[in-house]
Amino acid sequence: MSAIGKMAAPIAMLLLLSGCWDRVELNDLSLITAIAFDKPQQKNSVEVTAQIIIPKVKGGGDGGSGGGGGGGQAKQTITRTASGVDIADAISKLQMVIPRKIFWGQCKVFIFGEEIAREGIQEHMDFLLRHPQPRERGFVFVSKGRGADVLDLFPPIERSSSEVIRELAQMKIGLSVTLEQLSIRLKEESGAQALPLVHILPKAKSSKPFETIAYLSGTAVFKDGKMIGELSSRETRGILWIRNEIKEYTVTYEDDPIKGKVSVHPLHAKVKLIPRIENGAWKMEIKVRTAGDLVQNSTPLNPMNSQVLKKMEIGMQKDIQARIQEALKPLQRELNADILGFASAYHRKYPKSWAKAKDEWETRFPEIEVTVDVEARINRPGLVNAPGGMPQVTGKEK
User: Fold this and answer.
1) With 0-12 CB in 10 A as exposed, 13-18 as middle and 19+ as buried, what is 205?
2) Could you count the other beta carbons within 10 Å of the beta carbon of residue 69?
3) How far, rounded to the nearest angstrom, does the alpha carbon of residue 204 sit from its chain's CA centroid?
């Protein structure tokens, strides 16, 4: 009986195993790489456009053309569009025009059209966060115009337009927000959020139709889930400094009173928000510590001179301070939107004071006195004293 019992136990376990009964072959899936949400002509509805990878047959020719095209290369993605009363309804209708089962596991880009962003994105975010397939590491954008137009582009280098903006977001050359980060910021104390703006680069004269790319420039500012305005590319740089998200960036400034420009590529930056409440006045100090390499010097100054190098560092500090102040002005005076994390900083340091003042944040945020303290160093000025053919200027001569 003991031997029979030993054999029966593993047999029973095998019978309980599910195996591969619910597997779906890759040939039966439509892999979505990006999705865009726009406002159609019908009221109380949403238009969903999906970018789908075109399956290729190994050993075949060019696989046919999916629209667009250029240079003899076949388009590697197609787009399909459907409208519904909400995203779930639109997706179900989208499945009716796609002969394979829709799979979201590879979707890394989510684009909200400008019109639908101004109406509000919270309802649509509920679907994206509740559905089990969309990746929370996917990037979220707002398009200047219709989001579907971005997905219809045929980039000459990458295989899809969504791959272009995903690569740009990963490079951190501008604002970068994932689905997970946006879901957290929608619940923050300030009630304000920011998303990168996507623009379409005008195509070259020699390019085929739709043969261009999308690029990131500027910031869409949200309040309570609705887009209320936007910031320029320069103002966005200031936002990145304040939020300690500056990565690949070169600071270029004019060294007065000597005519010419100096370019420094920061290697790293550390930013702290230091909130203070003094005699009932709410203040915020933005402390920036950064260092970089001198990558170009178009002035006659000799950076190997310690006095000259110190003046270059002061010029760099003033330029960063100006960029931060330039970004603060529209946020405090025009948009009244705290996308900088000020509310969270006060909440952490002064929880009791914040509990009393959080309902008045709308009126308190614009009145916060902000000071910017920047310390910048140039670690490696290079081996070249001054540009060839230009007379050198020492620190004393200046």
Assistant:
1) exposed
2) 16
3) 26
User: Two tokens at 245?
Assistant: 């998200």
Structure tokens belonging to residue 24:
């779906």
* CB count in 10 Å sphere of residue 36: 28
Which of 24 and 244 is assigned the larger pLDDT? 244
Bridge partners for 281 per DSSP: 278
pTM score: 0.83
What does the longest C-alpha to C-alpha distance in the chain come to?
103
* Pick from 35-39, 60-64, 72-76, 331-335: least confident: 60-64
b/e burial code for range 274-286 (CB count within 10 A of at least 16 → b): ebeeeeeebebeb
What's the CA gap between 287 and 190, in Å, rounded?
21
pLDDT at 19: 60
Kindly list the distances between the CA atom of residue 86 and the CA atoms of 131, 335, 354, in Å, as whole numbers in the listed order: 14, 29, 37
The amino acid occupying position 292 is G
Q: What secondary structure letter does DSSP report for 330?
A: I
The number of beta carbons lying within 10 Å of the beta carbon of residue 34 is: 28
394: alpha, beta or left, given left = phi > 0 and alpha = psi -120 to 50? beta
* pLDDT digit string, tens, across residues 215-247: 999 999 999 899 999 999 999 999 999 998 887
One-letter amino acid of 98: I
**Do 221 and 335 touch, CB atoms closer than 8 A?**
yes
**What radius of gyration, in Å, describes the C-alpha atoms of the chain?**
27
Separation between Cα atoms, residue 309 and residue 379, nearest integer Å: 10
Rounded CA-CA distance 219/258 in Å is: 34
Of 65, 92, 60, 91, the C-alpha closest to 77 is 65
Give the distance, in angstroms, between the CA of residue 362 and the centroid of all CA atoms in the same chain: 26
Looking at residue 251, its pLDDT comes to: 84
